[in-house]
Amino acid sequence: xxxxxxxxxxxxxxxxxxxxxxxxxxxxxxxxxxxxxxxxxxxxxxxxxxxxxxxxxxxxxxxxxxxxxxxxxxxxxxxxxxxxxxxxxxxxxxxxxxxxxxxxxxxxxxxxxxxxxxxxxxxxxxxxxxxxxxxxxxxxxxxxxxxxxxxxxxxxxxxxxxxxxxxxxxxxxxxxxxxxxxxxxxxxxxxxxxxxxxxxxxxxxxxxxxxxxxxxxxxxxxxxxxxxxxxxxxxxxxx
Length: 239
Fold this sequence. Notes:
Layout (H helix, E strand, L loop, with lengths): L4 E5 L4 H14 L5 E5 L11 H15 L3 E4 L11 H14 L3 E4 L7 H16 L8 E2 L2 E2 L7 E5 L9 E4 L4 H9 L21 H18 L4 E5 L14
Parallel strand pairs: 1-2, 1-4, 2-3, 4-7
Antiparallel strand pairs: 5-6, 7-9, 8-9
Helix pairs in contact: 1-5, 2-5, 3-4
């Protein structure tokens, strides 16, 4: 079950909207990636939880994921409880990632900040020798990922790292389009219009990526936030 990258999202589609290009930059090179969704997004205005799960499965195929798990924690009402954080520790120890991606540390949707804090705690607890978790009846070994990054979401936060995702742009957008119930679709039969389903928000995807890309001299990019200092051994690797 070991993967190179493990991404957590409070809701199905959080990751596709925010860091799917980065995920594709791993899977397209033969590296393994997995996603763990906290909830089924059952409080969403459009679609149904069952439909969201099908859409998430389709997006997973586009992204070339090794695995995608849904913890089925209650949408909106979930808390930073010990029980919920332990579920995250189990997933980290199961997948043994080198890199963890988590929701934005603060955002328009309150669930995103909550999820970000929970993943930070789980990342730390997963490395503790005496913090016990079990999977399929067997005690799990502790695991410490090399890095934890937060992806950018709705709010304009300052990234620590900007990643060129230009080669993966079309496929990235295909992974978002997999959520047909949620985003702009002129042929949709959904009765309710939302912030996410507007054409204006759809255009936001490209505008954000182009802005980040402009900062590093590429066409499209995604941003990550790292709360600790980032170390390199050779500054010539920087663009």
